[in-house]
Amino acid sequence: MFDFNTLLTPELFFVSLYQTFFMVGISLFFGAILGTLFAVILVITKPNGIAEHKICYSILNTIINIVRSIPSLILLVSVLPLSYFIIGTSYGTTAAILPLIFFVSPYISRLVENSLLEVDNGIIEAANAMGATTWQVIWHFLLPEAKSSLVLTYTTATIGLIGATAVAGTIGAGGIGDLALNYGYYRFDHVAMITTIITLIIIVQIIQTIGNKLSKSIRNHHRET
Amino acid sequence: MIELKRVCKSFYHNKQEIKVLNDINITINDQDIFGIIGYSGAGKSTLIRLINALEKPTSGDVIIDGHNLAKFTHHEIRQMKQKIGMIFQGFNLLESKTVAENIALPLLLTGVPKQDRDKVVDELLDFVELKDKKQAYPSELSGGQKQRVSIARALANKPKILLCDEATSALDPQTTRAILDLLKRINQQQKVTIIIVTHEMSVLKHICNNMLVMENGKIVEQGNVVDIFQNPASPVTRKFVNAVIYDKLPIRILNNMLKHDINNIYRLEFLGSSCRHSVLSDAIMRDCGKISINILFSNMIDIQENVIGYMFVNIEGESNDVEEAIDFLKRKQVRIAKLDKDGNYV
């Protein structure tokens, strides 16, 4: 039956929560930058793109596909040795950040690519007709027009990343996933397990709600001014 | 002056060549309003995109003010584009930016300081009569207002040429009229050469001086708008002209006539000067009422102060009196044709 004896202390819980936010925050920051950069390169170098470049496009496209096809757990453990070279350890929260960036960048770049492809071709044509440089097309036309869609993209990416940090918990990264596995699963600590699940649900709900509201307000900002 | 010399353009699809433009030769003078008409797929949108280098010709030359675009560097092409405005059927405004920000975009790209940008935006908003919409977003505007914003945006860099790609096709007739009047004002006040691509003859009729008709990537006819309306040479052109002016008696009226055994039906073609004289009453008067002329149907249009049109009449009387009346009308420069049994006018 249900066992209410638990090793979970408030301190342990908050430390885990902090570790999760730390991992998500840092890897999201770098992942978003890299992912967006890759996506922009993909969109402009694609066939009939504004700076068409077959070789550049196919290399980047293939790399992203390869990384995306590796399951997150396998990807995380395979990149860990690289963490050892760079930060001197392959264990702990900090060590998990590099594999997480590896995981999330291609993921974000595919999502951002879709957002950018949604931008009406007519806008790009208008930019071209104005004599905009490639950089100007990206900065003044492509990204602003995709803004509302991009917010949803980063929201989805953040939630995906929270999932990935939970997986990273199983390889010693700490955080809330670690709590669920090491306490909830291995020690049959039901309270730890349920607390973890509820916490994850709440976090994801909050992030999704904020993302939706933000995206909607960007889409309709004229109604509020 | 814009010149296209022996221009051909092909696209390749699955390594198969699709000829979109074939041997195009055009000269467009400064300050002209030039119309390009054709059905969809005729190549007219590709043609207009050659002028601002959005498309490159496969062969032939595009020459603007004596400069061959093929000899331009990337940088020079960009500078040239900044002096050519373009408006589109779908307006292509940025939904994420306000009206003022949209209009300021071309200036932002050329590095004009903010103060000067604001000044130009205010002037342009005044010109297109949208001052009160300065801080609005495109989604709050009607189609006509959106096109006004995109016109203002196209004029921001004070271009010498304005390209209009089906700019009124998404608008209702009244809004179309207002936009065309605005384009005419731009042409007259700012001395801008305007090139209009359309599939609506009424657009050409309203503002163009010169025009060409395209079919399957070729120019089938080109010249002065009034001349082409009066004498459409090719079947396509005739179809387009008939969209705004009937050169045949509407079929129901015709059937009604035939039912009542009325056969002496003539088509009188009024062009230019013949409209200003009282030819019909003269024709009746000179024969002291030996013939009667009954107007069955008539339609006239005005093209830049010229009236052209067709009148369908039934002339009754002794056959030689009728002949004489017809000769008289011909002398008065009215082109006249009789409706034969097969429904053709000969």
Please supply descriptive tags for the structure shown above.
heterodimer, A: 225 residues, mainly alpha, MetI-like fold, 9 helices, 83% helix, B: 346 residues, alpha/beta, Rossmann fold, Alpha-Beta Plaits, 2 domains, 6-stranded mixed beta sheet, 4-stranded antiparallel beta sheet, 12 helices, elongated, ABC transporter permease (chain A), transport (chain A), MetI-like_sf (chain A), cell membrane (chain A)
Describe this structure in words.
The complex is a heterodimer of chains A (225) and B (346). The model of chain A has no long low-confidence stretch (mean pLDDT 90). Chain A has a single domain, classed as MetI-like (MetI-like fold, Orthogonal Bundle), CATH 1.10.3720.10. Chain A is mainly α and 225 residues long. Chain A contains nine helices and no strands. By secondary structure, chain B is of the alpha/beta class. Chain B has two domains: 243 residues, P-loop containing nucleotide triphosphate hydrolases (Rossmann fold, 3-Layer(aba) Sandwich); 88 residues, 2-Layer Sandwich (Alpha-Beta Plaits). Chain B has twelve helices and 14 strands. In chain B, the strands form three sheets. Chain B has a six-stranded mixed β-sheet with strand order 6-7-8-3-9-10, sandwiched between helices. Chain B has a four-stranded antiparallel β-sheet with strand order 2-1-4-5. Chain B has a four-stranded antiparallel β-sheet with strand order 12-13-11-14. In chain B, a hairpin with a 2-residue loop joins strand 9 and strand 10. The longest helix of chain B has 17 residues. The mean pLDDT of chain B is 90. The interface between A and B is medium-sized, with 22 and 29 residues. Chain B: Pfam families: ABC_tran (PF00005), NIL (PF09383). Chain B: It is found in: Cell inner membrane. Chain B: This is ATP-binding cassette domain-containing protein. Chain B: It comes from Frischella japonica.
